[in-house]
Amino acid sequence: MPLPSEKEEVWRYTPIDELRLDEFAPTATSAAAPVSASAQRFVVGVAADLPERGALLGVLDGRPLTVSVQDAQLSERGVRVGGLQVLGGEPDVLGRVLTGGDALVRLNDAFHPDVVVVDVPARTVVDGPIVIVHWCSAEPAEPAEPAEPAEPEEQGERGEPGGVAPASFPRTLVRIAQGASAEVVEIVAGPPGSARSLVVPVTELSVADGAHLSYVGLQVLGAGAWHLARLAAVAGRDATLRTFTVGLGGSYDRSRTDALADGAGSSTELRSAYLGTGDQIHDVRTLQDHAAPHTTSDLLCKGAVAGTSRSVYSGLIRVRRGAVRTEAFQTNHNLVLDAGAHADSVPNLDIQENDVRCSHASTVGPIDEDQRYYLESRGIPPSRAEQLIVLGFFDDIVERSPVPSAIGRLRQEVGLRLADTLGLDLEGAHG
Amino acid sequence: MSIFEVEGLHASAGARDVVKGVDLTVRSGEVHVVMGPNGSGKSTLAHALMGRPGTSVTAGSIRLDGVELTGTPSWKRARAGLFLALQQPIEVPGVLLEAALTEALAGRSGASQEGDGGQSIDDRLKQEAAAIGFDERFLRRPLNVDLSGGERKRNEVLQLGVLRPKFCVLDEIDSGLDVDAVRAVSGRIERATSEWGLGVIAVTHFHRLLRELRADKVHVLVDGRIVATGGPELAEELERTGYGAYEPGA
Ligand SMILES: Nc1ncnc2c1ncn2[C@@H]1O[C@H](COP(=O)(O)OP(=O)(O)O)[C@@H](O)[C@H]1O
Ligand SMILES: [Mg+2]
Q1: Residues that place a CB less than 5 A from ion ligand 2
Q2: The dihedral of CA A217, A220, A221, A227: what is its sign?
């Protein structure tokens, strides 16, 4: 199967033609591999920011290395978290949510070393979020930090500069059975800096009849990473699915989210945010796919581009025949912060049923002049007013995170990157 | 005692001359009401005083305590002690009221904070909210987001109360408010004139406001010019006769 090319509609506006697979090789991390100090620090940081979690999985290049369960009742209640083995040899667990994937999904099918599983049995309510931290290796860019002596570390970050760089293929399966409810936070991270890597994650979310899932995905890879992610979700009858995906890192960051309303009465809330700095490319694709009657989907996607970065948002609402009384909304707002930056917004509708309510709206533009004037008229200098407006632009969506306990970390990650690009003083920004 | 002087002011909006020679002198504690029909240039005058980009002063002078303000950016005018309550306050998603006021106060000189008794912003917000019947729930909202027209107007007066400027321009602060709300808001502004000597320029096309505000002076603005100035009795007269007598060609 050939790689996708820019000639295909779904890859338009992207640098996909520049992808050379022979420049990457799957990492051969073994379960016994020592974990780099930066990876350890990162996981410890996440743990500190999400103290009320149900469980935390540390995953290196797609292989779960550590599973720490905070909520002792999880296993008593039959909640299974860990590698594929936690499902006890159940056959054909993958590919039920994500059917008909493209070449990248095939690559992930072929190369994922394990599957990160979150499996919640029927009518079980999991309280704290289940947190998955993927650390994805990159070629070593800088010499190991002298501050961290002795350990034979940075093993996971192999490869030679200019040579073959690491590729990782994280695979995640979340299953929320009938009437159950859970929160999942999935973070994809890697060494900071511009070291090259290829990261191709595939996540399947299955939300059964009457079940609830709140999902946060955060991508904070280093600036040299190519991130080509696929998230697919299916919502059953009267199920609710809320997702929030945030793309901050990477050189080329593509995330495609498909949400299928498969059961009558299901409702989906999709949120995403991206911030482009330097010469990053963010490429966000969404599909709100309605296959059952009385289903709703509500999408809000907000992005900002600074420097010479680019973004493309492309969203499709599909209402299949029979999906009467569908309500589907799609909104995309883009802030263009510098003259060299560029954002595209491409909404699409494919409506095959009459009795439906669908709408889409999108904006692309600089900081609103009236907003800046309003703040200025209170005595706030224009540069500070702009910072407040951009922070507010993101805070507006971050504070509505479907997993409230992740708000602090999300805010911090967004804030850090804004601070770098806009010279922000973060004090007082969030009242 | 401070003095705010507008002399021979001409201002244009979108390449059109709208304000065509306005003179006003307001001292601390005074209340001036500028009345005029729709489209007479009231909002353009207000924005010219505050320095909105796009509203350009083509001639004349705006001075606060003798310091020339024309040509200086809005935020500096605000820091010098001028405040504008907008006819249509702007929504700023994600920017909390308290955060904006914290920023605004951080850059202010001590003079404009006289009499705040060293209270925290939070306390001042609550106190001002109570004074004008602004629901405390709204204090935690981003600026004007999901507020009704009337609530936004109250929000402007609330900010005025926290920022304690020397002079304020109120652009149709009464529109969108019910009778009780106009009374509460006017009462707050009226008290500010004695509390810290606030000087007021209230722009409106209704007379209701100026009764509550106890105006010292009333100016009639027609087609960008002040065509009459008098005491509160002028407003009563306008109430009976309308602006017809002042319209061009009348
Ligand atoms: N940006 C603009 N471009 C062109 N005309 C404008 C602009 N702003 C205001 N005007 C015009 O100037 C006149 C006065 O407007 P405004 O100051 O808003 O009046 P008022 O507040 O008294 O109702 C109106 O005729 C209005 O259409
Ligand atoms: Mg007006």
Answers
A1: B 42-43, 87
A2: positive
Residue position matching structure tokens 């009333």: B218
A–B interface: beta-carbon pairs under 8 A: 95
Domain boundary among A263, A278, A309: A263
Q: Number of folded domains in chain A?
A: 2
Which of A210, A245, A263 is the last residue before a domain boundary?
Answer: A263
Tell me how far the alpha carbon of residue B87 lies from the centroid of ligand 1, in angstroms.
12
A235: exposed, middle or buried (Cβ count in 10 Å: 0-12, 13-18, 19+): buried
Could you tell me the distance, in angstroms and rounded to a whole number, from the CA of residue B41 to the centre of ligand 2? Answer: 7
Which domain does A399 fall in, by range? Answer: 368-431
Report how far residue B206's alpha carbon sits from residue A154's, in angstroms, rounded to the nearest whole number.
74
Task: Say yes or no: B50 contacts chain A, CB-CB below 8 A.
Answer: yes
CA A31 – CA A232 distance, rounded (Å)? 27
**Same domain for A236 and A374?**
no
Q: Do residue A63 and residue A181 come from a single domain?
A: yes
B199 min Cα distance to partner chain A (Å) = 17
Q: Name the domain count of chain B.
A: 1
Domain that holds residue B128: 3-246
Judged by CB atoms closer than 8 Å, whether chains meet at B94 and A393 is answered as yes
pLDDT (tens place) for every residue of chain A, 431 residues total: 678 888 887 787 788 888 888 888 888 755 556 788 999 999 999 999 999 999 999 999 999 999 999 988 999 999 999 999 999 999 999 999 998 888 999 999 999 999 999 999 999 999 999 999 999 998 864 444 444 444 444 444 444 455 789 999 999 999 999 999 999 999 999 999 899 999 999 999 999 999 999 999 999 999 999 999 999 999 999 999 999 999 999 999 999 999 999 999 999 999 999 999 999 999 999 999 999 999 999 999 999 999 999 999 999 999 999 999 999 999 999 999 999 999 999 999 999 999 999 999 999 999 999 999 999 999 999 999 999 999 999 999 999 999 999 999 999 999 999 988 877 655 544 43
